[in-house]
Amino acid sequence: MEDMDRVSAGRGTLSQQLTEKLGRRILSGEFPAGSRLPTERTLAEEYGVARHVVREALKRLEAIGLLRIRQGSGIYVQQMQFDTGVKLFDVLLYDEQNRLDGKFLMDVLEFREAIVRAIVRSATRRRTDEHVARLKLLIDELVVTLDENKQEEILLEYYKVLVDATGNRVYRMVYNTLGGLLIRLRRMFDLPLVGSETNLQTIRAVYQAVRKGDPDEAEQMVSRYMSVLDKTVSAILVTKKSE
Question: What DSSP element (H or E) covers 67?
């Protein structure tokens, strides 16, 4: 093995580095689904680390869904499941010291924006009058609601209606995960979901664009709304780094 493939201090914890290296080898197909990984001892020698480091990395990969550890039998590569990506969010959002991984968080928000923009465009083209009426009722309810937990519930339902309007089950499954992530982010950073009158106007503008059947305007408006969250989280992460 080349020295550059061995793990070393200074680039995250040793188990984090090993998790990434083994994960890349699995995802590349070097270790195909159903195959058996080398033993802990062999991996420890190969990467130049203690066995407890290997054990931590393997447990992390098992939590993600890439491996199955069978006591007395060995370590086997799992068939990639649809929910493996879902599990990655919770596993990778924090490092082993329970510190927020800012880079990964911003990657998630970037992905979320791309997905929501696609959802809104599709919803605008496929929505029914029933979807439009439901969105209007939710906005009216949002305007008079001051409780943040209730606002959270209404806004998530608002996006759920948009997802349902697409008629796409994959969008629904993906957004279920991202919706849950949004809740965790709000509670983690104490973020208002609606906040200023400008944000509320933007939510209304998304509705109006969907009602008119204008996918370009709908995409622009929802992107504007989500950028507020992204900027707020970015500012908080900068503050945390300087502490």
Answer: strand 67-70
Q: Does position 42 have pLDDT exceeding 90, yes or no?
A: yes
Average pLDDT of the residues in 82-106:
63
Helix orientation angle between 102-126 and 148-166, rounded to the nearest 10 degrees: 60
**Rounded distance between C-alpha atoms, residue 210 and residue 134, angstroms:** 12
Contact of 69 with 59, CB cutoff 8 Å: yes
More confident residue, 167 or 11: 167
Distances (CA, A) of 17 to 2, 10, 21: 15, 10, 6
Task: Out of 57-71, 72-86, 116-130, 151-165, give the one with best mean pLDDT.
Answer: 116-130
Question: Which residue has tokens 């190969």?
Answer: 46
Model-wide pTM > 0.85 = no
DSSP letters of 108-165? Answer: HHHHHHHHHHHHHHHHHHH--HHHHHHHHHHHHHHHT---HHHHHHHHHHHHHHHHHH
Copy the structure tokens of residue 6: 């061995």
% pLDDT > 90, the chain: 36
pLDDT digits (tens, 9 = 90+) for 176-193: 777 766 676 677 666 655
Q: Which residue has the tokens 């929501």?
A: 116
Domains of the chain: 3-81 (1.10.10.10), 100-242 (1.20.120.530)
**Which element (helix H / strand E) includes 196?**
none
The CA-based angle 28-31-33, given to 5 degrees, is 100
